[in-house]
Request: fold
Amino acid sequence: MLDVQSPVGTQEAMGEDRHTPARNPYDPAYDPLTAPHVGTGCEYAPSYWIGTAGEPPADDGPIVSDTDADVVIIGSGFTGLTAAIFLAEQYGIKATVLEANRVSWGCSTRNGGQAQCASGRLKRSQWIERYGLETALKLHRECVEGMQTFKSLIADIDCDPQPGGHLYIAHRERMMPGLEKEARLLRETFDYDARIIDADTVRKEWVGDEEAAGAMHEPEGIGIHAAKLAFGYQRKARALGVKVHPASPVLGWETRGDVHYLRTPGGIVKARAVGMATGGYVTGQLHHQLKNRLLPILSNSIVTRPLSEEELKTTHFHTRQVLTDTRVLRHYYRLLPDNRVQIGSRSAVTGRDAPRDRYRQRLVADLERKFPALKGIQIDYSWWGWVDVSHDMMPRIHQPDPRESIYYALGYGGNGVMYSAQAGKRLAQWIAGEGHSLDLPIFTSRLPYPNVREMIESEAFAPFRRLGQRFLYKWYYFKDEKP
Reply:
């Protein structure tokens, strides 16, 4: 097991060039709910994205001495890097990005690469129920604008984009009335051109998913290569003067007056403002404003060998658009540019259980159920990662205490590939002093506690939170799989 508290030390102690982070082994059983720290200089997870992205771009090496920064961003994933890009481009602020392990080590190189026009886990109809129509319409406009922000950012990044929209597939016939109602709402209320496709058309003209009982197609959706996108953001940020320091976890944090003192293994970083963009890899030790505000949830992915021409015909993969199904424990899948199939879904409950092969085998069985012709196909890549889920299923980009120059952008619930770009833009606005003009609930309120706040405010109750998650998963599975 990796000693997550072992220091990096100085350049000489590492025995490496200062621009090369320490290479500690990948820890497959890491769990942010119970681990005191995220690690130092850990290697990437063995994802398809890392395996096919090429050599990672240059970075600025670990912190090796005390240093000053106007702004520190903690976390070098999609959100942290895009926030740094917008700070530099729009406000002339050159941020310093601190990463515990390798650059974009967490969510950003372990996701499914699906950029959808969504923010959090709730549907538009649920926005209306929770916030009212006027706010729901504003949230929709925020997502549409976010998609344009995302498209603009990736326009000059070679990240294998697969545009065209998103196909939301009903995995049971009983799901179709709900899809039809949602599609009608999207068209008539949100002026968003969603349409319903019947089961035969889905299987013959789109994709031969044997479970498909029909689908809703929405016009916005792009598949991307996650690591190529992350590395593209990294290059873009550094070209703008942003410093990106891997193997530099924040092991201690003290605020004195208006200055934050962030202790890393190589030195203290003093900052006037701090943005937290750690995704599902935040621990309760980082800052009290995040303690118990998120429930990290595991998601598994597998990628097959390339399909033959015959297999492509048999599976009726006529689209390379992003696909999801209507399960609560949903599957996300698609045909990649090199004709491999990627599929992902929820996984183990704890980090300790994550390496068990039964979770990979369960996902293989899911793939074969959807595409029987692929039974026994070779799986070339298998990995998992933590998703940052907020307790009310919506993200927050917020300044939790107006007296402190501390901000965060977290809680995407699995829909962060696209919205992280917009969240990075909004986080930059907050840091630059313009956040108070943002009036949506995701900008004006903190990440909430769960309803049983008194129970979970102690780390000693972490196992009980996981126990509740196990029961929820069993209930969701029952709901998902009943006829």
Remarks:
- The mean pLDDT is 92.
- The longest strand covers residues 379-390.
- DSSP finds 14 helices and 18 strands in the chain.
